[in-house]
Amino acid sequence: MTDAAPAPQPERQPGWFLALFALASAGGAVAYVPLLTVLLPQRIAELQGREDVTALAQVTFLGAVMASLANIAVGMMSDRSRTRRPWIAVGLVLSNVLLLAVGEARSVTAIVVLVMMWQVALNLMLAPLMAWAGDCFPDAQKGVLGGALALSPALGALAGSLVTYAGLVVPEARLALVAVLVSALVLPVLLCGAQRVRPALMVPREAIRRTSPLHQSAMARMWAARLLVQVAEGGMFAFLLYWLRSIAPGYPENGAANIFSAVLVCAVPISLVVGRWSDRRARPVVPLMAAALLCAAGMLVMAAAGTLPLAIAGYVLFAIAAAVFLALHASQTLRVLPAPQHRGRDLGVFNLTNTVPGMVMPWLTVLLVPRFGYAGLFVLFAALSLCSAVLLASLGRRV
Q: Which percentage of the chain shows pLDDT scores above 70?
């Protein structure tokens, strides 16, 4: 008896749809990066008459909790409805409306409530969007998809600079500009994305694979590997300026912001090249392992740095590697999800690796830095990145 012929591979998506999807994903970053990093702190300072770290921390923490819960819930609802685009469209409209409402809030309490509601609406857009990627892009295209997703943090950072650029728009119109940018990025894929789902990617997999301990282990390791790198990346995002000023007092704020933006822009072409390589060689895990190792190397350089040039060099190595890792991991995660009919829900669980670090990192830093300095914190981050590489190495070719 001859072996059964292998199932035909789903048809690849055209380049124009990949580009539109990458821009739509970037629209999500444009929605939250300028608000959470610049516009929200400014709005709270306007209402309080001063910078209020406690109020900002409360808004950030409660918003992250709502984002975590909403992403899972909305993912489940889009799974049950067996459609994604209507959810994305509704989320786009509601998140823009609530974004504008934040600018009209007259108290910190109102801002807290509005940001929590906005997080739900934003995830009404983002959760089905990422699940839609799993519905549309075959495994043979997931590397280049991940490379394209590196555009998201880069455009998010650039949008933060754009909306606050002196003289471009009056402060009262900045949130409206964000809403316009988000709409311009997301609407094209909604309007042109009909009939892009690949039926072969929607067929429920065998129950034996869904409950296989081997497959469940691969999911757990991919989840943990991302969480470990996200903890390190989140810590550096929050405390980059403070660390640079500990080496070079008086280091300007715009210097740190410029480095951060430049790193994210440089990561886009690197991610695309590496993602395409992983598709052609059918080696999805190798780039993730290499990126995790480079993250650890960058952190160790930073821990040993005594001069500003060496410190910046270590950070650039770490930050580019982390950006490549997170972009490629986002698409390769779709390989290990156990069942297409629960893709949205399962991606919501993976999304916890994005939100949980933001809740715990400030406290971890407060505990470690006063006693061990930033060098101790960076050594810990390097160890976490090494653990991530080990977890990915144990997967072999299972994904």
A: 91
